[in-house]
Fold these 4 entries.
Entry 1:
Amino acid sequence: MWKDKYKIGVAEIDQQHEELFRRVSTFIQTVRKSGTWEEKAENVKETISFMQAYVVDHFNDEESYLEKIGYPDLKKHKEAHEEFKRAVQEYVQRFEQEGYPEEVALEFGGKLMTWLIMHVASMDQKIGRYVVKQGGDSR
């Protein structure tokens, strides 16, 4: 699902975005493929664990970079990150309470991909444009 048009021109952030897309794509493919749900549930647990840790690191890196360049929409960007972390945490709680049902895993995968596309293709693209406008090279 990763596309080069999602790049913002900041190597570290672009690499992290690409990794997020790769993980979410693999997760969705795993949940949809044939096989027993017990086998797939392990991947659900791994993906949740990854998302909880990796998005925190990624968001911290991205927010630090935005602070460094004086990005004017930093507050709004942080709020979007917090909203995403809350959503992931809500799914963690649902999985723990409901025992990792397949339909919730499919819903989770769809939400992750939708959020990534919307955030990276919209909000994060503004970062690249801001860097270019400030005289930097975002590409």
Entry 2:
Amino acid sequence: MADERAVESAVAQLRAAGERVTPARRAVLEVLAAAEAHLDAERVAGQLEQVHRATVYRTLQSLAELGVISHTHVPDGGTIYHLRGREHAHAHLQCARCQAVVDIPVQWLDPLRARVERETGFLLAPDHAALLGVCADCRAREASMAQ
């Protein structure tokens, strides 16, 4: 079930920016507000049979550009979307073996972000792309196979 407060907050944000709240935009917001998993554009479109697939893609792009939703690029998985304000700010880890995506508090990366900015002047956006590694389950499987 969609988090109606989050949807209405996003709708208010759109209206405050002078943007239209089309049926497609509302439908996409409702799918993201109800999501319990990471959703890419295909999974959003799959839940919206009444909205043309191309419209879903354009809607996701425009909502991201307007700052109503956030997106994270995950290797070999495209882009995943979240409704801003629904969840705490988080970063993503992706297992290079099984492709699992794990959320972590973005604050865990603050020391790295501060050091990179201090030493290079570069400002990281740690919630914009997943960090690759190998998850605990895959590491355990590999260790047991090596024995």
Entry 3:
Amino acid sequence: MASRVAEHADPVYRAARVAGMIAYRSPADPMQVPSVLPLFIDIVAAEYLLPAERCLDDCMTLAYAYAQLGIPAHVRAAELSITNTLTKTTVVHGSLTPHWDDDMIYGHTVVWLPTLNHLVDVTAEQFPEIAALDQGPMIAGRDGYQAAHIPEERIQVKRKNLRMAYTLAPLDTTVALLDHPVPRASMADYHRRGVNVATAAVIILADSLPQERLALVPHRRAAALIEAVRELPEYRTPAGDRRFLLRGPDGAQIVVELDEIPLPVGTPSAAELPWRESN
């Protein structure tokens, strides 16, 4: 895994995936905007050679980022079964009963987008079977057949010679998993990182989507934010956080976060997260 990441650590390699996805997916596609966020996290992970086993941290960050764009997102513990159709072998990762031991989590987490019926596994390539395919984060939806014949908590996807089946643990299981000192102590950092990821995604989309196509974006809060930042100067804090500059009432520039930018009346608010944020 480390050698594969090092080989493709050049941000240009990963950024090409984002550019290609934006170029070839219609803005009317409900998954165009949501797909940018995990692909951006993948770029950052490759650039900084981050360890592969970071699923909970990335999922929490991603959920906060989606919330900023008004897209409901649930972190879910999951079990992943991978079958190689060539060798007829199956391996299982994760657990439907994850647990903490010595401040380490034993299990795997993904992000479930309930209003879009899509699953995002931002660290799928931590598993060698998936890493060998070199196709980035897993973004999979339930098609019509699955909706009619497969239980709601199970999502199946095929990549090349691999058949993968995700089974989601109940939401209560993940909420209980997050009620632990380690994630509770990190909630402020998850929020901070999530705002940065959402900001980066909005900037990428503002630079890539022509203004006349913005009306096609089905996520109204995301579309409003993309429009709002087009002409705003970006500002980086000493800590590296992404902010914007606005003109205050007295004409002086003020520094604002993404969620502090004034939006048109009637714009949906940020989505709520299904866990307790305070300690």
Entry 4:
Amino acid sequence: MTSPHIAIRRTGPLVDVVLDHPENGNLIDAPMSATIIETVTTLDDDVKLVRILSSGPDFCRGRLSPMPPKDAKPSAETLRRVVAAPPLALYDALKAVRVPVVSVVRGEALGVGCALAGVCDIALASDDAVFQIPEMERDIPPTLVMSALIGRVPVKTVAHMVLSRARLSAGEALQAGLVSRVVPAANLDAEADALVDTLLGCSAVTLRAVTQFLHLAPEMPASGASGFAAHLAATALSARF
């Protein structure tokens, strides 16, 4: 399933995933999710970096509602398959990418958009970006978005955003640990390109080692993390000889 609203651009070792439906604020639907999943799960060994971008003024204003009509009376299994499974598969696919994933966020990042920013290894935001998890305004528990953020964002940040439905400015998102860096909106593209150039200056094996450690070490006991660090460093260094 390929979506016309996702543009995939390959430039050497860089893969850009562009949310490309600005007319509706880049709302994510099932075909868009499937296209992103297909892209990031089939990366070849020459890829060093994935970058998630957007066209238009907003990064992603959420998700197109997949809910069946009110009179359909869907079963819990149908709701799990239609409503819950697609975003969870997207978040899991992004978490499993072997190389760093960078998001470049401008404008609104709401619901799924907030999750996409948070699930990436690095989130670069413009100073006019806004982050919100508004689902509880409709009495919907946003546990799917929460699943993307838990382990990547402090629990108190997730709790505050979910329960208060507060709209965080880019500066507040930075302080809360949701984004990595905030830059002036006029400089966002240049700063993103500079970050990409810095990352691409490293070998693929080094980038994969760092990414693997970031993904797995936080769940390990201290002794296990130390041994894992030694293994990854030795493996990466041995590739030079």
